[in-house]
Write a structure and sequence with these properties.
By secondary structure, the protein is α+β, with helices and mostly antiparallel strands. It has two domains: 97 residues, Glutaredoxin, CATH 3.40.30.10; 106 residues, Glutathione S-transferase Yfyf (Class Pi), Chain A, domain 2 (Up-down Bundle), CATH 1.20.1050. It contains nine helices and four strands, in the order βαβααββαααααα. A four-stranded mixed β-sheet has the order 2-1-3-4. Helix 1 packs parallel to helix 4 and helix 1 packs across helix 9. The longest helix is centred in the middle third of the chain and has 31 residues. The site of S-(P-nitrobenzyl)glutathione has 14 residues, from helix 4. S-(P-nitrobenzyl)glutathione binds next to helix 4.
Length: 217
């Protein structure tokens, strides 16, 4: 069955891989699944045809026959549930990998998203400059806790899982702010994720899509 995902027609990051189609591309590459990408403009995102598949008018979405999904976490879970190597077979280890997916999306990502809001969406508000350091400190607090849990382990819980895929994708968004590099063990963890061949393919594909450069370099 052909898989089609949606992505920004041109990502505002110019191909740095920070938009959420990259994490979906990554899980599809880990699973060895070919996929098509349908570009969506900011205007088209809010029009009925796209709203019919994504009620919030965003990317990414995932279509596979009659199945239509939105929410990057749900898409990653769907793919990981059906293909070996992304969720452990052992029931308890599987539950923990899913727990880490939720932790990435529900606990680590929210303060990171606040940084984008305060810098860009609210950047011209008089209180933005006072709020920015508070938001940065909230991210540092979370990353400190995560770093303490990771310790010197390679991945969050044994072998690489969809939990790591989500967490690395989330942490990548802290790199432009410089905060990721304040936590060397997390920076190394993210680098291990980025070094995975599937990530490399996903990154190259989104870069090519956003810049017109060839995907294989
Ligand atoms: N919870 C949803 C999910 O995980 O799928 C969130 C989806 C979402 O926020 N999508 C964003 C979107 O469609 C793109 S990824 N925004 C358009 C809109 O809401 O109108 C967020 C994003 C955008 C741009 C960058 N960047 O340029 O660096 C990074 C991340």
């Amino acid at each position: 069955m052909t898989i089609t995902i949606t992505a920004f027609e041109r990502s505002p990051d110019g191909g740095k891989g920070l938009a959420r189609d990259t994490r979906v591309r990554w899980v599809l590459e880990e699973a060895g699944l070919p996929y098509n990408v349908r570009p969506v403009s900011f205007t088209a995102m809010k029009e009925p045809a796209h709203l019919a598949i994504h009620p919030f008018g965003q990317i990414p979405t995932y279509e596979e026959g009659d199945l239509v999904l939105f929410e990057s976490g749900a898409i990653i879970f769907h793919v990981a549930s059906r293909h070996a190597g992304l969720l452990p077979d052992d029931a308890d280890a599987r539950a923990r990998a899913i727990m880490w997916m939720f932790a990435g999306l529900n606990t680590v990502e929210p303060p990171i998203l606040e940084l984008v809001t305060v810098k860009f969406t609210e950047g011209d508000k008089p209180w933005a400059k006072d709020r920015l350091p508070l938001v940065r400190d909230r991210i540092r607090h979370r990353l400190g806790q995560l770093s303490a849990r990771l310790g010197d382990a390679t991945w969050l819980d044994g072998a690489f899982s969809a939990g790591d895929l989500v967490m690395v994708s989330v942490l990548l968004r802290t790199r432009p702010s410089g905060i990721l590099d304040e936590f060397p063990s997390l920076a190394a963890y993210v680098a291990r994720g980025e070094a995975r061949p599937a990530y490399q393919r996903a990154f190259a594909a989104q870069l090519a899509f956003n810049t017109g450069a060839p995907a294989n370099g």
